[in-house]
C-alpha cells in the first residue's frame, strides 16, 4: 500500500532544519523560565554560600631595592671588572626564590610540618574563624561535637620525624587531659603518647610540641612533608616582580589564609636574601684579604733578610756614601721593583678568576712586560757604576723594595679588612612585610556571587536549549501532515482531569509533570464544559463525516506507545457522542492493561476476555453507564494468551453482533508498537484512529506506526494530538529526526481486578 506523501515535504523539512528562529528560541526559554530561575537561584545560593564560608586569603607585601654594586677593592682599581657589574632583576628574583633562600624560611618556620585542626564539615571553619574570644578562651562546641575545633585552638610543632615511607601522609593528633596527647597513624592506630614540652619518640617517630591549647578530645591533622616538597610548594606561592623596567625595585608577595604566617614567611625570606647578598658582596674582599695575609710572612722574611745583608755589608766595608747618580737610579729601581711585586700579587687573583686569554689578563701582561723592560734598562745603567757602588746599590735596593712592598701590603690588608667589615651589599629592604587584614584578596565575594549567578543562568539556558534540541516529540501538527497523517483534533492538556484523579491535592503545574497516571474519572461526566471536552466535541463532528465513508460503524482507537492518552480520548469521545443522542458502545480490548472500567466506576470482570472464552454471554457483559445511551464492555479477566484469544472467531462474532445494535462502536486497543493486538482488531474496524501525545511521540515513531498498520492492510484515517500544552513558543518548530527500533514493554496487570 502506497502512502501519499507531499513531494515537497523533504525540502521543507530541510529548510526548517537550517533555520534558526530566534523568536522560537526565546519562546522556549520563556516556557521554561521557572526551571532557568530555579537553576540560577541554586547556583546563586551556592556562590553566596561559598563566598561566606570560604576561608579568606590574605596577601603580605614587601619591597626590596637592588642597587648598583660598589667598585672594586682598594689597590685593585685596574681590574675592577673582576668584581662584576650590576645584576639584572631577573637574576635577583631567581636568587630570591632559590632553594637556599626559601629553604631557610622552611627550616626556621617549620613549614615542612603541616598542622590543621579538624573542623566540622562545611561550616566549622567559618564558625571558628568568626570566634572572637579572649586570648586563652575556647569556643563552645556546637551540638556537643567536642572532637572538632570550634575556635581558639592553637598548636605549635617544631619537630615531627616520621619513617621515610610515611612522608606526606596525614596523621591524627588527639589532645588528652593534663597537657598530654596521642598520635595516630594514617590507618588510625596509636603510635605514641607524650606531653607538652617533652620530646616523644617511638618506632621511628619523634614529636615535639612546645605549646598546645585545645579542649581535651580535639583532633588535629599532622603531616610531615619532605623538605624539598615544602620548598617547591613555597617557591610556587612566593611572587616576585620588578616594578618598572630597570628600576631595581622588587615587589614580593605571598598569599595565605593566616595573615601572621604570611607576614612572617615573607620577612624571613627578605632578611635571608639580604644577608646572603651581603655575604656575596664581601666574599671577594675576604678572599683577597686571605691571600694577602698568606703572602705577608714571606715578604716580611725577605725584608728581614735584605736588612741583615745590608747591615752586614756596611759593617764589613765601613761607611760608604752612595753617589747622587746611584741615588737617582736607586729611587727609580725601587719604584719599578715595587710595581712588579704588586703586579705579581695581582697575578694570583687573576689566575683564580680568569683564563690566560681574558682581556684583564692580557692587560696585566702588557703592564708586567713594560715594568720588566724598564727594570732591564736600569740594570744596564747600574752596571756602569763602580763595583762597590753596584754592590751597595743592590743591597740598598733590596731593602727599600722590601720595605715598600711590606708597607703597602699592610695598608692593603687594613683597607680590605675595613671593606669586608663594612660591606652592606647592594640590596636593602624598603618596606618590611605587611598584611592588610581588613581586605583579604580572596575570595572576591561580590564577584563570586555574580559569576555563580551568571553561570547558573547560562547552564539553565543551555539545559533548556539542549532539552529542546533532544526533544523529538511532536509539537507541530504540520509535521504529521507532512507524513500523510491528517490531524483531526488537537486536545488540550486537562489540568481538571488531573485534579479529579488526584483529589485536588496537587497544583496544576505539578500535575502536568505526571504523565503516567491513568485517568480514573470520566471528565465528560464530571466537567462537561472543560476545554478538553469542547475539543472532543469538535472531534465528534469531524469523525461524523469520516464514518460516512467507513465499511462499518466500528472505530478503533490505538496509539504508537503507552501513556499517550488513547483510553482517555476513547472514553470521553464516546461520552460526548452519546450525549448527542447516539447509541454508543465502548469496548475495552486492551486485555493486558485495560483500565476503562475505572473511569466508569465499575470492575473489569465479565468483559471481553470472558465473552471470547465463552464464559459469559455478550448481553450479560455489556453494562450501562450513567451517561445516556453509552454502554461499556470492559476488558474482563486478564487472559494468559490475549493475542490468540483475539485471533479467534469469537472476535468477529462479537463485533458483528454489536455493530447492528449500536450507532457507533468505539474499540480501545493496546499500542501497536508494544503488541500486535491492534493489528488483529483493526482488520474488522471501519475506521482506525491514532492518538499521539504532544511532546512525547516523535514524528518518525508515528511514521513507523502508520507503516506497521499498512503492512497489515489497515488504513489509518488520522491522528488525534492529545495533551497539547499552551506554550509561548507555540507551533512552528522545525525538527530533524533520526530513529532506531521502538520497543516497549507491555505486560499484563494480573494483580489488578
UniProtKB/TrEMBL annotation:
Residues 275-346 form a coiled coil. Its main location: membrane. Keywords: ATP-binding, Cell inner membrane, Cell membrane, Coiled coil, Kinase, Membrane, Nucleotide-binding, Transferase, Transmembrane, Transmembrane helix, Tyrosine-protein kinase. Residues 18-109 form the Polysaccharide chain length determinant N-terminal domain. It is a multi-pass membrane protein. Signal peptide: none annotated. It catalyses: L-tyrosyl-[protein] + ATP = O-phospho-L-tyrosyl-[protein] + ADP + H(+). Belongs to the etk/wzc family. This is Polysaccharide biosynthesis tyrosine autokinase. It comes from Zhongshania borealis. The lineage of its organism: Bacteria, Pseudomonadati, Pseudomonadota, Gammaproteobacteria, Cellvibrionales.
